[in-house]
Amino acid sequence: MKNILVPTDFSAESHYAFEVALMLARHTSGTVTLLHVLEAPEAATANFSTFGGPVNGGELPNSTGSIDQIFMLKLMEATKGRLHALKNEAQALAPGVPVEDTVEVSRIGNGILTAIERHGIDVVVMGAQGHGAMENFFVSSTTERLIRLAPCPVLTVKHQQAQFEVRTIVFPSDFTTDAVGAIAGLQQVQATFPNAMVHLLHVVSGTDGLTTQQHQQAFAQQARLTNFQTGVITAESTSAGIEQYVKQVKADLVVLPTHARSGLSRFLQTSIAETVATHAFPPVLTYHLA
Q1: Whole-angstrom Cα distance, residue 283 to residue 132?
Q2: 168-288 in CATH: which number?
Q3: Which CATH number fits domain 3-157: 2.40.128.710, 2.60.120.560, 3.40.640.10, 3.40.50.620?
Q4: pLDDT band at residue 32 under the 50/70/90 scheme
Q5: 258 — phi, psi (to 5°)?
Q6: Rounded CA gap, 73 and 79, in Å?
Q7: What is the distance between the alpha carbons of residues 289 and 257, in angstroms, rounded to a whole number?
Q8: pLDDT bucket at 42, cuts 50 / 70 / 90
Q9: Measured between alpha carbons, how far is residue 206 from residues 213, 233, 235, 271 in Å?
Q10: Helix ranges restricted to H, the chain
């Protein structure tokens, strides 16, 4: 996880992700690439107020170009200025961590996927928003699409992290057939954080805890995990059980394997994946099952 991409819309949440990415890059001796996606003129014009209008509040200059072209040039200039400010901030927050910046002109999801391929990204670190119902819908759908289509792991950050020292990892699963495909990704996570304790968690609604623990032990043996604990918790819903357990062990990271086609594993329904990725959790890392 050395080549890190941080999509930013200059919101507080994307800044939280930027801070986590810098701490992760310092831990892995990696690099950070800041990405802002400018939408096509038709979409961007509707969001012009997000960037505070023309640069420095001035009027658009006379030009033979179209209004859309002038607008995009000014928007690009303002965007590069804001990215440059973040790079300067990174020098103070994480001296020695290389930080680059790039801009894609595209739809948001497509722009992120293009940048992943173009820059050979190992992991995407992105902020998760969502406060009202409509806002949550749009953010969750973007996050879900990226989780489903990104060829690399996605680390979702919602809240500011005073530090990102991963000592406790929660890995929720049902530890059945699908779980075998999660082993390679989990091994990579443990290699990145070799001193972290991995909690293999199963959320149950009945009394099958003993059988579950046997499956967890078999999974740990197959994955050759050396620093792990098994956990079984009873809850009304999977997301509620994960949240309860995460608080109980004071987890620093939640790791969720997903299917590439749907963006979720058989164990996780859409609503659960979105809740875990955008709720009041520590950072959540998703990756595709092998």
Answers
A1: 21
A2: 3.40.50.620
A3: 3.40.50.620
A4: very high
A5: -135, 165
A6: 10
A7: 6
A8: low
A9: 14, 10, 9, 21
A10: 12-28, 41-46, 67-93, 108-119, 133-149, 183-192, 209-223, 238-249, 270-278
Q: pLDDT tens, 109-118?
A: 889 999 999 9
Model confidence band, residue 72 (pLDDT cutoffs 50, 70, 90): confident
The average confidence (pLDDT) of the chain is 81
Q: What is the pLDDT of residue 281?
A: 76
Strand order in the sheet with 253-258: 99-105, 31-38, 3-7, 123-127, 154-157, 284-288, 253-258, 168-172, 197-204, 228-234
Cβ(276)–Cβ(155) below 8 Å: no
Q: Residue 186: what pLDDT?
A: 94
Cβ(97)–Cβ(87) under 8 Å?
Answer: no
Spatial separation of the C-alpha atoms in residues 216 and 126, rounded to whole Å: 30
Residue with tokens 């406790």: 168
Region 3-20: mean pLDDT is: 93
Q: Which residues of 41-60 are buried (b: 16+ CB within 10 A; e: fewer)?
A: beebeeeeeebeebbeeeee
Q: Token pair for residue 178? A: 């699908």
N-to-C CA span, the chain: 18
The residues, any chain, with a CB within 8 Å of residue 172's CB and separated by 6 or more, are 201, 202, 203, 238, 241, 242, 245, 254, 256, 267, 268
Domain boundaries, the chain: 3-157, 168-288
What does the pLDDT read at residue 179? 83
Type of residue at 44: A
Tell whether pTM > 0.85: no
Structure tokens at 52: 């505070």
Which of 171, 165, 221 shows the shortest CA–CA distance to 195? 165
